[in-house]
Amino acid sequence: KLFFTDYGNAAKVERCDMDGMNRTWIVDSKIEQPTALALDLVNKYVYWVDIYLDSVEVVDYQGRKRHTIIKGRQIRHLCGLAVFESYLYTVNSDNLSILRINRYNGTDVQPLARLDHAKEIRVYQKRTQTAVRSHACEVDPYGMPGGCSHICLLSSNYKARTCRCRTGFILGSDGRSCK
């Protein structure tokens, strides 16, 4: 799945399949300007920052179990969000500090460092990477992902895929090659 935020006409947090199908709103109320988003892949939770409401909130992948982690002035100007173990990590764009927030109680907020020009944060650690099972976009014997000549996108499950073409090309009638 692909998870994303939008605060155009109607602010929301959404999810869809990697090929863009099955687009679903998972949060569409009491939300104003959702920006940064992070996933807890193990427990299947979506965290986001709402910069208008000065809040960090969470829901499960279906949009249930919503609650506020932290709200208020101490978390103004947040951008970027990452989850690792018991903490959320974010960047305060006002003073360029990296903050650590306890994601279970929201009371333990600690500045960790100051980084000039920081706008995003990521955690790279083996435990944050889920094991990848065999899937429909694996490279075939000819070196083509999922048998697609350009781009392979997973569909509703790991066994299904959709082929797409780069800009300037159209998908052939075989559904795999681009012309």
Present the secondary structure layout.
Layout: E1 2-6, E2 12-16, E3 24-27, E4 34-40, E5 45-50, E6 55-60, E7 67-71, E8 78-84, E9 87-92, E10 97-102, E11 109-114, E12 151-154, E13 161-164
- What pattern of helices and strands is seen along the backbone? EEEEEEEEEEEEE
Q: Strands of the largest sheet, in order across it? A: 4-5-6-7
Low-confidence stretches: none
Tell the overall outline.
elongated
Question: Gap between N and C termini, in Å?
Answer: 28 Å
Q: Overall mean pLDDT score? A: 88
* Major sheet details: 4 strands, antiparallel
Q: How many discrete structural domains?
A: 2
Query: Could you name the CATH homologous superfamily of the largest domain?
Result: TolB, C-terminal domain
Quick overview of this protein structure:
It contains no helices and 13 strands. The protein is mainly β and 179 residues long.
Characterization of this structure:
By secondary structure, the protein is mainly β. The chain has two domains: 2-124, TolB, C-terminal domain (Neuraminidase, 6 Propeller); 134-178, Ribbon (Laminin), CATH 2.10.25. It is 0% helix and 40% strand. It has strands at residues 2-6, 12-16, 24-27, 34-40, 45-50, 55-60, 67-71, 78-84, 87-92, 97-102, 109-114, 151-154, 161-164. The strands form four sheets. It has a four-stranded antiparallel sheet with strand order 4-5-6-7, with no helix packed on it. Strand 12 (151-154) and strand 13 form a beta hairpin. The model has no long low-confidence stretch (mean pLDDT 88). GO terms for molecular function: Wnt receptor activity; Wnt-protein binding. Pfam families: FXa_inhibition, Ldl_recept_b. InterPro entries: 6-blade_b-propeller_TolB-like (IPR011042), Cueball_EGF_LRP_Nidogen (IPR050778), LDLR_classB_rpt (IPR000033).
